[in-house]
């Protein structure tokens, strides 16, 4: 009885201690948490933390998720839970500067009307006819709004970046200022070939919708202070003083997006038309690039036999493969950088190669590259070329991968330490620069990524590649704060069952040959059976000879036997996976509790033996 009282008192004390510990931890350590995921999915980056702690005005976030309509969508609900938990972490870090409201927009409710008012996309569910909302809207004290219409599962790696970008946009509501210096007619103008006015390029129209564009001259002596991002397109006409101005802009913290090219096929300037060689269509940023740790040969074009595009030769002729025009696939695109992670296809024409200089202080991060089935060729090889397949004659890949675009960050010094006119430059060095360089300008042209159709006088672009998205993503990223630029793409919370996938592939290889053999036998048996029965009236089957009836019956039996074997083979495809599932259940349900029980018994036995020996 005394032992029972002691045991009951001990259990009560343990229970009270457990409750007291939970209460104390919630009060004293409200923000304490441990992220045990491999890629730290629930730990916000330093850049996001800087954005949140630097908020000066409150931001209201409205997270819309149709909880009741998605009750049968397990994967979507798990992702929604991750979004909600990450938003709650944002709210915790920002303190009273973020007001998070979680809303389940029921059908025909005011909440549903508000979601539609914000511009959120609703997906109709075919089974129930309900609308599924899964998006985010935000507003600031000025009444300005930013939305994420729908959280796509395939974009989970960009979740933190998109949330941070939305909040950063609300904190800085004015349009970013983009300074543009272009050697190509992005804004349209007069076509020198036809003498007719040309429409603005689609990419330029998209830039004007999202940013404030300021056209700058090629001979500027200083980049205006209000420019957030300087965009250089085919800057072959920049003067030395203009290059110095660009250098000083970058060193003082300005962001640069530069498009250079060893052979700009879209260059129809008078200088390019008069110069019969390809040199008249090349552009470079020397000596700035070399000073930033990048080498670039303005006379070499990247060829890639693996990524070469198929181009038309004219009516009645078969298409040709152009290994100087490349379709950059997702495998060659950096999935860790927030600018390129959402992209799946990029197209370039006669692009150049960027490479890091050994020993450079800057960090060189490739954005997209060629495959190893590539080589460099002189740009002069394209002069007067009529058939692009001549590039395949004698082509020998050098097994090197060439980077077509890169992000440059890190410490840098001035390329013009002596300055001009006897005056020293205002800034000699910087601890960190932010530059993106793309070694092609033709990717900006409409023909390389978009088809424009006329719809009742309106130009309707229909993109078939992500070139426009690349430019907008780059400007959007660079126009943000240093903190936003530092936010990287993250992993997915859904982890693949790699063991199960390997078992499934092995089972398919093991049983596919048997299945194909049985399928062939079944087809042959059915064909022979059809030949025997061809022309026979079912009512006259009794007139068949005994041998014919035996043959028919034999083939029928063989057909049933083969079908049974085929079912067995298909069943065996999943047998290994089911066996693995059974073992996991045994381990979770029986083995783990048994091991814990055995450990407790051993601990109790050891203590008992020690007491006796004492």
TrEMBL record:
Keyword Isomerase in annotation: no
A Pfam family assignment: DUF7088
Coiled coil: 504-535
Domain DUF7088: 38-138
InterPro entries xref list: ABC_transp_unknown (IPR019196), DUF7088 (IPR055396)
This protein's UniProt keywords: Coiled coil, Membrane, Transmembrane, Transmembrane helix
Name the record gives this protein: ABC transporter
Organism: Halopseudomonas salina
Taxonomic lineage from the root: Bacteria, Pseudomonadati, Pseudomonadota, Gammaproteobacteria, Pseudomonadales
């Amino acid at each position: 009885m005394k032992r029972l009282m002691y045991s009951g008192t001990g259990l009560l004390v343990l229970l009270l201690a457990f409750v007291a510990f939970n209460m104390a931890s919630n009060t004293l350590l409200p923000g304490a948490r441990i992220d045990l995921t491999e890629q730290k999915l629930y730990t916000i980056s330093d850049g996001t933390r800087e954005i949140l702690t630097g908020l000066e005005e409150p931001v209201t976030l409205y997270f819309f998720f149709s909880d009741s309509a998605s009750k049968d969508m397990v994967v979507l609900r798990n992702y929604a839970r991750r979004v909600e938990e990450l938003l709650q972490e944002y709210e915790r870090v920002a303190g009273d500067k973020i007001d998070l409201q979680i809303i389940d927009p029921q059908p025909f409710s005011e909440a549903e009307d508000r979601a539609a008012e914000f511009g959120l996309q609703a997906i109709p569910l075919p089974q129930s006819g309900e609308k599924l909302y899964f998006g985010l809207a935000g507003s600031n004290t000025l009444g300005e709004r930013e939305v994420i219409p729908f959280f796509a599962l395939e974009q989970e790696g960009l979740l933190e970046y998109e949330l941070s970008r939305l909040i950063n946009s609300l904190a800085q509501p004015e349009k970013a200022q983009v300074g543009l210096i272009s050697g190509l007619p992005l804004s349209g103008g007069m076509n020198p070939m036809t003498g007719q006015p040309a429409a603005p390029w689609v990419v330029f129209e998209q830039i004007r919708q999202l940013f404030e564009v300021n056209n700058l001259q090629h001979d500027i002596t200083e980049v205006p202070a209000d420019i957030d991002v300087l965009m250089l397109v085919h800057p072959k006409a920049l003067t030395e003083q203009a290059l110095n101005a660009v250098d000083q802009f970058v060193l003082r913290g300005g962001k640069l997006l530069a498009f250079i090219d060893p052979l700009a096929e879209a260059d129809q300037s008078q200088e390019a038309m008069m110069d019969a060689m390809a040199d008249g269509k090349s552009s470079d940023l020397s000596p700035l690039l070399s000073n930033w740790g990048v080498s670039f040969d303005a006379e070499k074009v990247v060829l890639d036999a693996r990524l070469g595009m198929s181009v038309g030769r004219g009516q009645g002729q078969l298409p040709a493969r152009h290994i100087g025009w490349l379709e950059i696939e997702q495998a060659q695109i950096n999935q860790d950088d927030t600018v390129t992670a959402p992209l799946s296809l990029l197209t370039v024409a006669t692009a150049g190669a960027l490479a890091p200089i050994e020993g450079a202080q800057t960090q060189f991060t490739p954005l997209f590259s060629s495959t190893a089935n590539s080589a460099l060729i002189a740009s002069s090889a394209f002069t007067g070329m009529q058939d692009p397949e001549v590039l395949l004659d004698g082509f020998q890949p050098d097994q090197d991968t060439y980077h077509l675009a890169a992000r440059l960050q890190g410490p840098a010094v001035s390329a013009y330490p002596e300055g001009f006119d006897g005056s020293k430059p205002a800034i000699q060095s910087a601890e960190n620069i932010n530059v993106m360089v793309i070694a092609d300008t033709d990717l900006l042209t409409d023909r390389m990524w978009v088809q424009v159709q006329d719809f009742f006088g309106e130009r309707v672009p229909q993109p078939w590649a992500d070139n426009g998205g690349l430019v907008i993503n780059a400007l959007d990223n660079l126009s943000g704060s240093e903190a936003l630029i530092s936010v990287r793409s993250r992993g997915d919370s859904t982890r693949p069952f790699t063991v199960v996938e390997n078992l499934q592939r092995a089972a398919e290889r093991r049983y596919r040959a048997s299945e194909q053999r049985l399928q062939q036998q079944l087809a042959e048996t059915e064909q022979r059976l059809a030949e025997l029965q061809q022309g026979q009236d079912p009512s006259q089957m009794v007139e068949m000879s005994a041998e014919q009836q035996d043959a028919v019956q034999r083939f029928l039996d063989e057909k049933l036997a083969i079908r049974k074997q085929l079912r067995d083979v298909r069943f065996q495809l999943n047998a290994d996976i089911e066996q693995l599932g059974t073992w996991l259940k045994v381990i979770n349900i029986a083995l783990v509790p048994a091991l814990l029980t055995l450990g407790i018994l051993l601990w109790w036995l050891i203590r008992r033996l020690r007491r006796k020996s004492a």
